[in-house]
Specification:
Structural class: alpha/beta
CATH superfamily of the largest domain: P-loop containing nucleotide triphosphate hydrolases
Helix content: 25-40%
Mean pLDDT: 92
CATH class of the largest domain: Alpha Beta
Order of helices and strands: EEEHEHEHHHEHEHEEHEEEHEH
Distance between the termini: 28 Å
CATH architecture of the largest domain: 3-Layer(aba) Sandwich
Largest sheet: 6 strands, mixed
Number of strands: 13
CATH topology of the largest domain: Rossmann fold
Pfam families: ABC_tran
Keywords: Antibiotic resistance, ATP-binding, Nucleotide-binding, Transport
Bound molecules: adenosine-5'-triphosphate
Main location: membrane
Protein name: ABC transporter ATP-binding protein
Shape: globular
Number of domains: 2
Subcellular location: Cell membrane
Radius of gyration: 24 Å
Length: 316
């Protein structure tokens, strides 16, 4: 289990004060975060730039000491017990590689087996799974410095898992990746999450990662948690609704009301209407509509997570 209690991290920064002077100022990067993450959970940790996501991950992984508050990861306090912690966690931080730049990927994996003293059979079994699922074979013998970003990220994720950690921390695992690599990484993480064997905490700016992967979404802003729950709870809280988009042979009569909905948009001279499904199902709305109008085509649009998260950031 991962526990944070009133966790804080302040940085002292020098900011310009007048033309020549600079003065010290405290930045509260993490400002009283309390969270408990149960084993096997897959949690998306999101927030605007500078919200405090990386700083939180750094405290969880023992890279930074908290200014105050408590943090424990599977019973260990990260900074003082960093060596023991390293055996239980896997970390993928985009900017920092755990691979040997000049060696082929395969050699990095071999060296990591020695670093973590993983029995050969266990190592082989884990590596085989990653090779299959992350499609590594085509570039296993390529030096790491020659890998594309997507190939390297797949290598980094493998490297983070070869010692069989209980927790995987990922900072922006899909940033800058091409579509194929993104899909490979997401499918792999989805499968990993489904086993429940590894607890996963990931930060991302790509909300499709969250939609695809995370049951739980924690939103942080200015170092504080502003939402903790499912994506559905976020939609409910911000009143996002599904909508029904219909293409009509002719515009609806003036003053037309479809029970349980409100008109969210009218386009193409009234031939396309979007109804927000406020208090009714898509099926009931469609039935009500085809009874009075000639419907050429229709689609049901799910609420957009980008939209609701943008509203949340603005509110924050
Ligand atoms: N080493 C540091 N020294 C001074 N200030 C820092 C340091 N690291 C982070 N900060 C500040 O702390 C705040 C939180 O930064 P952090 O990197 O945790 O945000 P983030 O949510 O990960 O942002 P991003 O999405 O841009 O990566 C920012 O205001 C940042 O400028």
């Amino acid at each position: 289990m991962i526990r944070m209690r009133d966790l804080r991290k302040d940085f002292s920064v020098r900011v310009p004060a007048g033309r020549l002077r600079r003065e010290k100022r405290l930045v509260s990067a993490v400002d009283g975060v309390s969270l408990t993450i149960e084993p096997g959970e897959m949690v998306g940790y999101i927030g605007p730039n500078g919200a405090g996501k990386s700083t939180t991950l750094k405290m969880l992984t023992g890279v930074l000491s908290p200014t105050s508050g408590e943090v424990s990861v599977f019973g260990l306090t990260p900074v003082p017990q960093r060596t023991r912690l390293a055996l239980r966690i896997g970390v993928v931080f985009g900017q920092r590689s755990q691979l040997w730049w000049d060696l082929p990927l395969r050699e990095s994996f071999r060296l990591l087996r020695h670093v973590y003293q993983v029995p050969p059979a266990e190592h082989e079994q884990r590596l085989r799974r990653c090779r299959e699922m992350l499609d590594l074979d085509a570039f296993l013998d390529t030096p790491v410095r020659q890998l594309s970003l997507g190939q390297r990220m797949r290598g980094e994720i493998t490297a983070a898992l070869l010692h069989g950690p209980k927790v995987l921390f990922l900072d922006e695992p899909t940033i800058g990746l091409d579509v194929v690599s993104k899909q490979a990484v997401r499918s792999f993480l989805a499968e990993l999450g489904a086993t429940g064997a590894v607890t996963v905490v990931l930060t991302t700016h790509d909300l499709a990662d969250i939609e695809r992967l995370c049951d739980r979404l924690v939103v942080i802003d200015h170092g504080r948690v502003v939402h903790d729950g499912t994506i559905e709870a976020l939609h409910a809280r911000y009143g996002s609704r599904r909508s029904l988009v219909v293409d009509l042979d002719s515009p609806l009569p003036a003053g037309f009301v479809l029970p349980g909905t409100s008109v969210a948009g009218v386009e193409a001279d009234g031939h396309r209407v979007t109804f927000a499904l406020d208090e009714t199902s898509a099926a009931a709305a469609v039935a009500g509509l085809v009874a009075v109008a000639s419907v050429r085509d229709l689609s049901v649009v799910e609420p957009d997570i980008e939209d609701v998260v943008a509203r949340l950031y603005r509110a924050g």
